[in-house]
Amino acid sequence: MRERLIEDWLTKASERALEVPFCHMLGAEGYTVLHLARHGELEQGKDILARDQSGHPVAYQLKCMPGGRLRQGEWARDIKHQVERLVELPIEYPGVEPYPRHQSYLVVNGLIDDVVRVEIEALNRSRWVPFGFPALEVVQRPALVGRMAALGDGFWPLTLQATRRMLELYLSDGSGFLDQSRLSGLLESALHCADPPGADGAARAIAGAGLATGCALAPFAEAANHAALIAGWTVYLAAAAGLAARLHLRDRAWASSLAIAEQAVDDALGQLVEEATAEGPTGELGPFTVDHMLSARATMVLGLSAVAALWPGEDERRQRIRSGAIDLLRQQHTHIRFWGEGATPYWLAVTWGLERCGQGPASSDVLSILIGCRCSRHGGRPRACPSPYLAPADAVDYLLLEDAAAAGMRYPEAESSADLLQEDSYVLESLVHLLARRGSRGDVAAIWPAVSRMRFAQSVPDDLWERFRWRFDHGMLETRVPNRTQSWRELREEAERADYSWVPTPLRERPHLVLLFLMAYPHRLCPDLVKLLDDGFRAADGG
């Protein structure tokens, strides 16, 4: 079953869908991936740069053939000149010396015709090897299937439940929302086994889980569903961070896997922003006629665009994407919609994004409106709000039912919503702390009567590393009622206190990834993580 799934995926895969999983396969085999070329760029015929187990530089060019075979016409017309550059031009990358010459690989997702194979052998024999170039090696689909399947449980855990999750994801409609809880369950079953591996085994497992993620996300990659790809690779990073925190792994043990997934997110984020700036914040995710869903999707795109505005880096591509994201935020930020507490990370992203582009008053307005949405009351009680555990589409369903009820209509489905609506707030304490951190004493005083009639809630696991899991096994729900006569000085002191030492260092140094984590896992939002983000983004702003 495993081999058949891999082969089916490889047969259908585009180069874009194959590159990141292939890098994770290399990582699991002990290679160190140095660079993954951006989509659409030809970097001297080299799609992937790496070092092998002995430290020797290697370069790969990946080709996915729609017909499953590399034929003479395609070779002569489209590929041969790229392969010549792959072999003959030295690697230009910091820390990689031009000599000894690198080993080159042509990787195809199918098979090559005999006539192409004979020509490659002739080039090796007469043109490359006599002049000191290592012979070009060709990796075809059977070899790829064997190497990927050899990763064993790191690729696809051998349990019926995990097999079902993988198949459900692989066979899903890539144009819709990603089932993040299902992907999280799949990866956790691979990484959090009963007998945890050592450091080397953990690094291999994390890399293997990256390959599993690439396979599970194949339909979303083929549909160019950028938002789902961002969410999927973020779920992978959460699973990897959970294992790293659980085993106290050294940063270098999973640094390569983190960097590969981070670039996958960056690529998808850049493409989302480029499409959104061309079509508007709802265009990337397709047309919808339901106002609630349209607004929710617009909120997601605007929140992700804010992450792009906050993403570090000053190269030409990054500056172009950041400029587009900032323009989108300035022009469209009033279109964000509160569909429940699961929307909070997107609103916070817009808040920090507006601060980054010098829109302080607009940023304060967004934060104040968000708090107002959560503190609204109905019939003298705090208004019940969709749980942060609810996916956006499910939360929107409850908003539609609420609209129907307001119009005098009643549906049986509304009766089952009580356990998914809540008066306690998982996010309000964090939001109040953000206002206090900004010295907004007047704003806090204005909203405090409403805040003090709420109850703060937070799920706390016995082991803090389990915050990176979709559901943890052991913990407790902590709740408290705010003090109605809260001292401003004490609130400011409380707002500045934070302990996020339990977050692995590579994530603490990348607040943009932590923000994406909260978008994928909004039920994990807590004051310490929000303060981590606030500290990181304000430090980047020089604050």
Written overview of the protein:
This protein has 543 residues and is an alpha/beta fold. The protein has two domains: 1-150, 3-Layer(aba) Sandwich (Trna Endonuclease, Chain: A, domain 1); 247-540, no CATH class. Helix content is 56%, strand content 9%. The chain contains 22 helices and 13 strands. The strands form five sheets. The protein has a five-stranded mixed β-sheet, with helices on both faces. Helix 7 (180-191) packs antiparallel against helix 8 (199-216), helix 14 (344-356) runs antiparallel to helix 21 and helix 17 crosses helix 19 (488-496). The N and C termini lie far apart (54 Å).
Rg result: 25 Å
Percent of sequence in beta strands: 5-15%
Please tell me what the overall shape is: elongated
How does the major sheet shape up?
Answer: 5 strands, mixed
Features:
single chain, 543 residues, alpha/beta, Trna Endonuclease, Chain: A, domain 1, five-stranded mixed sheet, two-stranded parallel sheet, 9% strand
Give a concise summary:
This protein has helices spanning 2-12, 15-28, 72-88, 114-128, 141-149, 160-170, 180-191, 199-216, 218-222, 226-247, 251-279, 291-310, 316-332, 344-356, 360-375, 392-406, 428-437, 441-451, 488-496, 505-508, 511-520, 527-540, and strands spanning 32-36, 48-51, 57-63, 69-70, 103-108, 111-112, 137-139, 377-378, 381-382, 385-386, 421-422, 456-461, 475-480. By secondary structure, the chain is α/β, with parallel strands linked by helices.
